[in-house]
Amino acid sequence: MSTRDFKATRRQFMQGGAAGAALSTFARPLTAQEQAVPLDKYEAEYFEDAEWAFVMAATARLIPSDGDGPGAIDARVPVFIDRQMAGEFGQAATWYMEGPHDAGANPNFGYQSPLTPAEVYRGGIKAFDTWCQNELGGAFVDLDADNQDAALTALDSGDVPLDPELRDFFDLLLQNTKEGYFADPRYGGNHGMAAWVYIGFPGARANFLEWTDPSKDNVPYPLGPVSIAGERA
Amino acid sequence: MAREEKRRDVVIVGLGWTGSILGMELTSEGLDVLALERGGDRDTVPDFQYPDVADELKYGVRYGFMQKPKNSTLTVRHNTDETALPYRHLGSFLPGDGVGGAGIHWNGHTWRPMKEELRLKSYVEEEFGADIIPDDMTIQDWGVTYEELEPYFDRFEYMCGISGQAGNINGKVIEGGNPFEAPRARDFPMPPLAQTLNGRMFKEAAEKMGLHPFPRPAANASEAYVNEYGMQLGPCNYCGFCERFGCLNYSKSSPQTCILDALKRRDNFSYRTHCEVLKVEKSEDGKTATGVTYWDEEAGEEVFQPADLVILAAYQLHNVHLMLLSDLGEPYDPATGEGVTGKNYAYQMTGGTSLFFEDINFNPFVGAGSNGYCIDDYAINQIDFAAEGFIGGSYISAAQYNGQPIRSMRLPGDVPKWGAGWKTGIKDWYGHSMSIGSHGSNMSYRDCYLALDPTYKDQHGRPLMQLTFDWKDNDIRMTQFMRRQIEPIAESMNPTSWASGYKKEGAQYDVRPYQTTHNVGGTIMGDDPKSSVLNRYLQCWDTHNVFAMGAGAFPQNIQYNPTGAVGALAYWAADAIRKDYLPNPRPLV
Fold first, then answer.
1. ipTM for the whole complex
2. Which residues of chain B make contact with A186, given a CB cutoff of 8 A?
3. Reported confidence tier of residue A18, pLDDT bands at 50, 70, 90
4. Given A1, A188, B111, B410, which is the most exposed site by the fewest CB atoms within 10 A?
């Protein structure tokens, strides 16, 4: 993660003199997030062991850790997805789920599966792993990174035959991965707000009137993010 | 047997913008007014308070303030040959629920329709000839003119507290405002919002091309303001949590910030939450309503609420549903063209061009719901429909609402949607893009309508409402025309790259991506009971003590966001009820 931009702009910011007091607490250490249980010790609420291993491996390819910026594993995206599946979203608690269902309908009509998102993960992982076994010679978690990418590409492009009620599996997985990367850390992902730091989103600061002034045009905002719980990064 | 409550003078169904306005107006007459709201209660504190509301996942992505489809939804199909399927989770449009309704989670774009839009059919016939109207297009006049509504637009804008710049005061064109708008009696109550870099860049580019940019009229206060009810707004702080959120700052106009605390202080007003109205009950001769039956969630029983006057003030879709379920007006039949209730559903046609600038940082999280500059140079009263081959128009705008990264991550087309390339792309381009959008009209058609679904039921065992809708060539030609206007403006700004998204020929309506919550029609107003559900005062032609508020009254959609017209019509109807109906209850036309 880059601190280079921050140093340059912090100097400008201090010279400007606005809200300098805010910087005094800027480096306050993280608390709850730092104490999070290591991922290999995490006990999933929804996923079974093999499913959890899949979610760890798949999200690690969707947002890889190498290069600049955190990957899905660094951001603890799998924890986010597990909690979402155990909760209201995974259980489709607010969705209209009455039948009859036409899971193979024109996709323009949206989600039409009789299964909840959590059930789509369960069935989707199983079907996808079977396909990986048949086509690539191993379950997804046992493939090398290139073959995992190839398998996910096939899944994304609809080249992995799935029953119609599972057809939204990849879209759910990718959407939930990005949600876990960027959502407030209270949901288990975006650990240390690292994804926000990486792109320069200040989180829940929610007060920027002076930044509409033309003197701030093209000046990167200098303060790091805060979470809803008040943590800073 | 339903429990029966004490008779009221007025029962209002739904406590959003129009229910709140009618509550104020009718309690001012000394009437005993009860509002029934199917959702929960909501207020700035605790429901919108900082920091809890600054939660993109909960409210922006999981729709925390919106209707839950489990409790209420509809079915959708493209044409009468298809089987409609339920809108099982939200996407394309986001009805609100709870006190304040969609009036809490809107952005605050507050427009008046063009005067030509309020008599669109007559305008087209007079200017271009009736033969340019396609056979299946069912546009109509509203039955009320801009001139009649002007005082009510004004009243709504001053009640709401709108920040903006007038372009035409009593016929005098004002520099910096919209020169194509209809005359207004006075300027907006507050000056325009501050603007962000993207908007200023668009303004400069548009001016260089000889166009006429002006700041968008905003229900986000640019300064401290007190309205006619003594309600106070504070200046917007550009927090970037407007669309889909309640305002943490008492800046965005909503029923909560502008009306409800004043209304709740009145002894002759009361409201009940978690009370969903199931049906409007009619007298034996069918000419009047006797009250409403609702489901009391807490008691777990049906209740009959007798009332002398019934105001339907739910969201457009729910007003239409309730009227269909209650035999208010004859249901529309697309095969014969007969009947009126459910007729002329219309949506909104939008498109946009994204611009990417490698050397410019826009700080995209610095945003307000309705900041930005607009042009109306391609508005409905500026286009030669006969020459261009379509009826309609758009306003074009550049604005910065928020930089919430799950929903607002615009990326150039060569960035992959996942993997290492995506991760590089979000670093490179978050903060480096802006967009120019087109927000346009949608005409009404013979086979775009609302009815009761034959298969699917709601939690009360009532048929769901069925929407039949698809895009039509006329409206696609309109949006492609806007693409041809916007792309040269975008190119003139010298972005590193740009990409366009406009519906193309053959595009089908897709319920998945968010488009707008500007559903209109179904309870259309007009001057003839054969072709409208409501008369010009929003009174049911067939049942004179039932009035229906909201965008259901629009006979086709306007090119603007509907709330300004919805608010003005509510004040217009309230005035007719106060001055003309109450002294002598009867059909007003």
1. 0.97
2. 55
3. very low
4. A1
